[in-house]
Amino acid sequence: MSLPLSFNPFAYEMHEDPYPTYARLREEEPCYHNEGMGFWVLSRFDDVLEGYRDWESFTSTRGIALEEVGTASAPSMIGMDPPHQTKLRKLVVRAFNPKRVGRLEPRVRELTTRFLDEIVEEGECDLIERFAALLPSDVISTLIGAPQEAHESLRIWTETMMHREDGVSAIPKAASDASKNLIGYFAELIEAKRKKPADDLVSALAEAELDGRHLSDTEILGFCFLLISGGNETTEKLIANTIHQLSRHVDQRERIVAEPSLIPALVEESLRFRSPTQYMVRTTTIDVERHGRTIPAGEQVVLLIGAANHDPRRFQDPGRFAIDRKISQHLAFGFGVHFCLGARLARLEARVAMEEIHKRLPDYRVDESGVSVVHAGNVAGLATLPIRFTPSQRLAG
Ligand code: HEM
């Protein structure tokens, strides 16, 4: 029997706090079926983990989003299953190994301090507009090898491409126009890197071989899209959510200021507590039994990360934000064959951002009346984060 529970990820708005709904799903209907919209939802930690692990029963090849997928894009490994996905992933995995990501730290710090130096004397700003939205996009543009002068256009096109209207599953026209601009830009970049390779990801992909042949432009384009669409907004949300939570828990912020070595644990708790990616979608390839119900083959299943990361079976007092929580595993970056390739980079960016913000603006306060939320597909989090702080000159004096 189905409970009168209506879970519709297009309609949820973060200011309405989805966590009570998540708790009802998890406890009352752990294998939920939305009959109107035709998808299923798994929300307990173990079920969500198993959904990501068992790619043979839960395929990524029939779409990983609930909404209509835009036409002006390029296929990428996130929408594939092994063995082809494994081969493609191998081509880029090196760029995300500890050594390569570590080499990006000076650049991440340079960008971070540059953006923060522009605001430290102002005493107030929207931290998303002036910082959190800028850093991840510049880092990825650097990684793929786009010249500095293109970074701003790339960021604006990416933001526009990702924007969705609340409650509407269709792709807005501005979003498809922006993705066409991105395709045009990346096509030129690939051509330029084929002619004159440098030490960047697009050059490496242009030289890489797959089954004895070079990658096509479309395949490289797929990687570029995947990186900008997967790595920008998510990291922006992670940074903004972390500051928002710390402003609500001033005692924990003071500990961070006094003891920056706690920052990696802070970042993990933030990822768990407000996971930027709320869910990914899979399609069943066989009938799957869960909690006394059968999900027939060929059905879309939402693997609800946001709910799994608040499962009390796994996390004690999950609704409490606690930087000293010992987290052995959360699902904010997914699990298994598609585990987030950029996880190490996102953690690096968030750590450097937290280190520099707490050095420069240690007494920030969030103006809660100006906080707003955004909902772009499966990514949820803050859209604006107005803060006030003591300007650095006065702080020093
Ligand atoms: C806080 C920030 C981030 C979050 C929460 C996040 C989340 C995720 C999740 C949940 C997945 C799994 C998708 C699935 O199973 O279908 C994923 C995959 C992926 N992410 Fe991230 N991501 C973040 C940052 C980044 C960054 C910075 C990059 C790149 C620069 C990146 C690149 C990727 C790629 C390439 C994949 C696909 C891997 C594959 O299909 O094998 N992500 N991410």
Description:
The chain has 397 residues and is of the alpha+beta class. The chain has one domain (14-396): Cytochrome p450 (Orthogonal Bundle). It has helices spanning 19-28, 45-53, 84-93, 98-103, 105-117, 127-132, 135-144, 151-162, 173-195, 201-207, 217-231, 233-248, 250-258, 263-273, 305-308, 343-360, 392-396, and strands at residues 31-34, 39-42, 58-59, 124-126, 209-210, 213-214, 279-284, 288-290, 293-295, 300-304, 365-366, 372-376, 379-384, 386-388. The strands form five sheets. It has a five-stranded mixed sheet. The protein has a three-stranded antiparallel sheet with strand order 4-14-11. Helix 9 packs across helix 11 (217-231) and helix 14 (263-273) crosses helix 16. The model has no long low-confidence stretch (mean pLDDT 91).
The small-molecule ligands in this entry are: protoporphyrin IX containing FE
Q: What structural category do the secondary elements indicate? A: alpha+beta
Helix content: 40-55%
Strands of the widest sheet, in order across it, are 1-2-10-7-3
The helix tally amounts to: 17
Strand content: 5-15%
Separation, N- and C-terminal Cα atoms: 66 Å
How many runs of DSSP E, i.e. beta strands? 14
- Please give the domain count: 1
Unreliable stretches (pLDDT < 50, length at least 5) are none
Gross morphology is globular
Radius of gyration: 21 Å
Architecture (CATH level 2) name:
Orthogonal Bundle
CATH fold category name? Cytochrome p450
Mean pLDDT: 91
Largest sheet: 5 strands, mixed
CATH superfamily: Cytochrome P450
CATH class wording: Mainly Alpha
